[in-house]
């Protein structure tokens, strides 16, 4: 903040980094179908539903990346050639550790495992850093939920056809986050 002749001039800090991650991004139909699980589940477990327009399935989370490295990030993702596949989300699960409820597919198709792996390898080749975890596809539905070890009731299966994956930028973390699609990468 500068103070020139009594006038407060806010100098916007130049943003040098973007908070980014790769994800599967539902089409309108799949988005509406997955979102329809939120009402009945939150009646049961409480918590706060993620806005429908934010629902996604993370592939690789990078976090802060320097703006000048974003072009390189696109090049890395363009090296990934994955096949199209379908996910059928069949169950809602509670994760007590982080108090979230998420939707999970009954079967993880090999194309998805391969997609996550080849994307990670491409990112490593291009010297991007991220946490390597065992990949468990899921769509977070509710936060701050309270539930036990009892299984959640079965939900109407949701079919979601993956034609591409996306690079998302996360804006305004903590106070009404929203995601911007920076780029799409088609699957064969
Ligand atoms: P908020 O943090 O404001 O509650 P959010 O978690 O949806 O919102 P981000 O923190 O930007 O938004 O995270 C974007 C996505 O990446 C989410 O799916 C989140 O679960 C996932 N994510 C965030 N941090 C990590 C991490 N360290 N490792 C793996 N995935 C992460
Ligand atoms: Mg977060």
What is the topology?
Blueprint: E1 2-4, E2 7-9, E3 17-24, H1 28-35, H2 38-45, E4 48-49, E5 57-66, H3 70-78, E6 85-95, E7 100-105, H4 110-125, E8 139-143, E9 158-162, E10 164-171, E11 178-186
Antiparallel strand pairs: 1-2, 3-5, 3-10, 4-8, 6-7, 6-9, 7-8, 10-11
Bound molecules: adenosine-5'-triphosphate (ATP) and magnesium ion.
Adenosine-5'-triphosphate (ATP) binds next to strand 3 and strand 5.
Q: Can you write the helix and strand succession as a string?
A: EEEHHEEHEEHEEEE
Name the CATH superfamily classification.
Cyclic phosphodiesterase
CATH topology: Cyclic Phosphodiesterase, Chain: A
Q: What global shape is seen?
A: globular
Classify the beta-strand content into a percent band: 35-45%
Which consecutive residue ranges, at least 5 long each, have pLDDT under 50? 6-13
Spell out which ligands are present. adenosine-5'-triphosphate, magnesium ion
Write down the CATH class.
Answer: Alpha Beta
Structural class: alpha+beta
Radius of gyration computed on alpha carbons: 19 Å
Q: Provide the residue-averaged pLDDT.
A: 93
First and last CA, distance: 50 Å
Question: What CATH architecture label applies?
Answer: Alpha-Beta Complex
**What proportion of the residues is helical, as a percent range?**
10-25%
Main sheet specs: 5 strands, antiparallel
Strand order of the largest sheet: 4-8-7-6-9
Helix segment tally: 4
Q: How many strands in all?
A: 11
Please characterize this protein's 3D structure.
- The protein is α+β, with helices and mostly antiparallel strands.
- Helices cover 22% and strands 37% of the residues.
- The chain has a 5-stranded antiparallel sheet, covered by helices on one side. A 4-stranded antiparallel sheet has the order 5-3-10-11. Strands 1-2 form a two-stranded antiparallel ribbon.
- The longest helix is centred in the middle third of the chain and has 16 residues.
- It is globular.
- The termini are far apart.
- The site of adenosine-5'-triphosphate has 10 residues, from strand 3 and strand 5.
- Adenosine-5'-triphosphate (ATP) binds next to strand 3 and strand 5.
